[in-house]
Write a structure and sequence with these properties.
By secondary structure, the chain is an alpha/beta fold. It has a single domain (9-295), classed as Spore Coat Polysaccharide Biosynthesis Protein SpsA, Chain A (Alpha-Beta Complex). The chain is 30% helix and 19% strand.
Amino acid sequence: MSDAHQVRNLVFARVGRLSLHRNWLLEAKASRNWDLQLSTYDEQQTDLDDGDFPLSVDTGTKWDSACRYLRANPDLLDRYDYIMFPDDDLLFEPSGLSSLFQIMASNDLDIGQPSLLPSSHISYPVTAHCPAFQLRYANYVEPMCPIIRTDYLRTLLPVLDRWPTGWGQDDIWTMMMAKPAYRAAFIDASPILHTRPLYTGAVYKTFEKLGMNPEGDLKEIRSSFRGLPQPKLIYGGITRSGHKIGRIGANIRNGLHLLRIATAMRTPRDVRRVGFGMLLRTVTQFGYRPTQLEKAGGASPSVTFLSTTTR
């Protein structure tokens, strides 16, 4: 990596035999604001050469491999402003990756994710694309495609290192900064399609092979912090026309949209439930703003990347 390198964003992608990353590369390199670092978990795919840098081969999970890579290349946290960690089963709009990075920077976000098109395999209806918005401020970002400011990534790396299955990480990511309000968002201006059915990726076999316990990680994280967000909430947004709106307006628009599109989604009952919940919260969640989590013992979270694993 040259010192003259000017691109300020990195995509760190864990990829396998069926990876869709070649579709991302349809965006012309001359117009991209991101570099691509491929990391494969499949030892049969070591001939992958379409990233911008030499292929990383690591048979671990998404998050412990990312920690090892960043520990071996600490300069990346200074060289880049944002790093995206997408799964390899995602389809982006043309120029979608560059658009996502631009929106993150122009809105001074610490962490975010693209919203999901309704035909996607979706874990939580709140992440579904809402076309009335450029972005919606949220107390949640999922591990599928987080985009993280590198300054903030230094804060998150210790917990990624400690609980590398990723289970439970989404409970804490958006609320470990000192002032989390308006620092995390779903980005609707550039949605993605999640193509793989839930809980079917190769990582689940890797958990078993490496003796990892995702359910244990989830339980331990939830017992290690106080003030975890329940439920996953929207508390404001920026409309497609560029107007900033508050909690009530954002929940009304988002809730009505979910009710309109419920029948077109894979889990219409869940979508309706979340839509009605948003409308109800316009009168029950007065003045909600996310606040920094505390460790269960009362201390604030660590911000130092561990030099050795704690597992």
